[in-house]
Amino acid sequence: MNVVEQLQEVRKWTKRRDEKNRRMSLVKSWLRGSILPTDHIVNALEALISSGDKVALEGNNQKQATFLSGALSKLDTHKVNNLHMLISSISRPEHLDIFEKGIARKLDFAYAGPQSLRIAQMIEDRLIEVGVIHTYLELYGRMFIDLIPNIALVAADKADLAGNLYTGPNTEETPTLVEATAFSNGIVIVQVNEIVDELPRVDIPASWVDVIVVADKPYQLEALFTRDPRQITEMQILMAMMAIRGVYERHQVMSLNHGIGFNTAAIELLLPTYGASLGLRGKICKHWALNPHPTLIPAIESGWVESIHCFGGEKGMEAYIAARPDIFFTGKDGSLRSNRAYCQMAGMYGVDLFIGSTLQMDEEGNSSTVTSGRLAGFGGAPNMGSDPHGRRHSSPAWLDMVSNEGTIVRGKKLVVQMFETFQKGDQPTFVESLDAVAVGQDANLPIAPVMIYGDDVTHVITEEGIAYLYKAQNLEERKLALAAVAGVTPLGLNHILSLNEQLRKDGLIAFPEDLGIRRTDAKRSLLAAKSVEELVEWSDGLYKPPGKFRSW
Amino acid sequence: MNVVEQLQEVRKWTKRRDEKNRRMSLVKSWLRGSILPTDHIVNALEALISSGDKVALEGNNQKQATFLSGALSKLDTHKVNNLHMLISSISRPEHLDIFEKGIARKLDFAYAGPQSLRIAQMIEDRLIEVGVIHTYLELYGRMFIDLIPNIALVAADKADLAGNLYTGPNTEETPTLVEATAFSNGIVIVQVNEIVDELPRVDIPASWVDVIVVADKPYQLEALFTRDPRQITEMQILMAMMAIRGVYERHQVMSLNHGIGFNTAAIELLLPTYGASLGLRGKICKHWALNPHPTLIPAIESGWVESIHCFGGEKGMEAYIAARPDIFFTGKDGSLRSNRAYCQMAGMYGVDLFIGSTLQMDEEGNSSTVTSGRLAGFGGAPNMGSDPHGRRHSSPAWLDMVSNEGTIVRGKKLVVQMFETFQKGDQPTFVESLDAVAVGQDANLPIAPVMIYGDDVTHVITEEGIAYLYKAQNLEERKLALAAVAGVTPLGLNHILSLNEQLRKDGLIAFPEDLGIRRTDAKRSLLAAKSVEELVEWSDGLYKPPGKFRSW
């Protein structure tokens, strides 16, 4: 026997497949095809999951595998413990309960908005061992590399008897989690709302799926991307006018992603009014990587928008989307197909601009939404809010960011931060040191959890004006431009006002008057819709807002 | 009628769907289910494609939709012309013939290796209007944003009578092109090698597909990732030893992507010998984003490799992969599922290191494989060979690249360039100005087509030593470190040798002796396999190399 033969003798190459077959044989008698009776779920999970497994549990921003996460939290810790959870968005209490109970031990995640306070405390108390905190794309990427799931627990709308799945508009991350698991001999377990004879369309083929279970009630779905226009202030309208005039028009921004705040909702609602008055329809903002924001309805109806690709769906927008197939990605059945991984990829690599808001920014332009005691994670913002150095295709906006001379240059993605100089409660947004630094230290993170780094930011918009950071030749100039729009925050008060004339001349800053904007014009009457009710009107009754947004 | 009603009156929202239905009705009588008779393909394409359409034609590195691209080149230009082609890899003569004939006019592409000379000439002659040159991920991303296909022409192995598709190991970009087209009311046309009663597995569901046609012969598949160990030189072995010692071991590189050259093949073949002698098994190189390189077989068989996710397949590796499901991503049927988009995403975001080679590098570390008169495009290298600024998760290797101090820092992806100081024909690799600069000007590109920018490169390895560029505090230090390993090229000859002692002390460069490597140890006898025949032996006969690699 030579060395090669000896090595092959000892090594087995089908451990994952054999183990999968072993576990599946334990539940075989309960299955009809791949369908498991609802009341067998806890027993089945105890048979199919082994201690120490890597378990990908679907937790999106919106769609939650609530039935499966609930069942997981009921497992007998003598049978199943020390799981390594992969959860993109920690949204449900039971996502953390399983750590308190000892069912799970290690956690890789991307976002923990609703649970950010509790998760920070549990990490400090060593109830959770954090792998690392990712962005969505990184976590998905590593599921194909070194965080390969043994188990996927996901949610779909419907299954047929053959085991094919229909996810409906909130396709989101389901296909990605399933692909990573199914093709590595992991076990794919799906909760569905119902089993039907014929699916509207197939989103995931039966041959990728192992176990299907009808949930006791439909999966949770959150309307996270709905902003009521009533709450948009005139300060936000002023900033939105500056964004349209001083960024979108100036750089011919054709494709973009918006954050989910009221600031960007204001921009969406100004396109058909202020934007139209500037003659910009068809010249900016034609292509979007965006969840179906209801506040974009007036711009769509007014012919501004050519296409929207979505990370996920949005409650209430189903009928409107189905009636606008030229704009939205929809299947043969007419309903949306979203895709979180592809939309993040497109939002990072395929668009001119990202614009979002933040809670804190330091004097170098680093920013974070992490505030004291809360560990919210990153979500997808850093994917979009960074300059992708691998980008090689150009567009007018991207080329506008070329700031150095020479034969070897490159453009930049436009990364815009837009916020008021003070947050509610009179906390200055510009701070000496980000809270993220202390939070990172408390949670023993290797580096501070910065959401967007200053060297990636090209523009900062406050109610004072715009800082054109991409024009700064060095860190000093970047700091000066920021201080010039920092208002009466400590950073702004220390700024030497006499420098502003030169900064304006150099194009490093612009005030509203430099952009032809009168502060007194920033009125709520400019909004194309001033309430959710008016959004419904614009949609011809197709948009059906969830109850909490109905005030009429 | 109010303004909203007026706008809605004039706007139609189902143009794409209506147009698709109109076109499909023209071919309906020829279809049985979705299956079109082979000899009807030209007529069918003339009915289904309209002048000016955006047409995504599957051209991977490996798998080519040859039957469909051949049919496309036979269209009557009076009926179909001025198409806007989206082709990730220009590999076939007919990919360019259609431009000469006037069937197509505009081109967005990512790579044009085999056709790089002809494409450069055709652009200069204005036979092709180039949209822009992308990397793969950018082109895929934009297919969901502003380059949404009207038509997809793709290749699969098999279809069933219901219209489901099995792509086999070379899944590659097919699902991505189909998703972008199917969910935007485009028309998806698939060539298959055969129609069967039952598929081994479903890669793409029938509800995403419109027309299936059995090709006159199987699609073309190229073995592009096979390197014959016979051709590996001792110079390459020396550099490979430096890479293992001075980069992989030093930074604990656990997950990585290799380029396709002989340099990296040498590393793969040294892991089970030189790497083992350093006690590194299990400590480096466990997880890979990589095509199934045959030269990785000895490392797999020796227990170095835990997982490999693939962009595509490789001819001859099918049976070996099917027998190693713990390592490769395989379906229930046992065959590989590759995925170009996900693997690029993982290779960019999810791994510690990219290492590749280049033909030219300038004194600042910018590099390109574009040489005079050839416009090869970018492919996927810039995705992998750049620092992804959106990355937020850390690993020991990534943290090792933190070079500045302070509370706000971040790591870097390891981007390694490895090449000999002279190319064949005694052309120095270090040049004063990249040929890419002139080629870009000739082709009227907005900026020079640089493959990897100097500021993204962390390490350069030549036969002289390693330049640790991530340690350079400024451009001057970066230039000095590069010159120190530039040998007797003009750049190297101008370097002041007396500086080297300080550069070594500062850790900016290392010579083989600094790494404990004797140049005389770099022998071919170190290779775990010295020929393709020995790779076959390592694989226990499972690897079945294509004829051109069989010399025994």
From TrEMBL, chains A, B:
Species for this entry: Paenibacillus alba
Domain of life of the source: Bacteria
UniProt name for this protein: Malonate decarboxylase subunit alpha
Gene of this entry: mdcA
InterPro entries, sorted: MadA, NagB/RpiA_transferase-like
Upper lineage: Bacteria, Bacillati, Bacillota, Bacilli, Bacillales
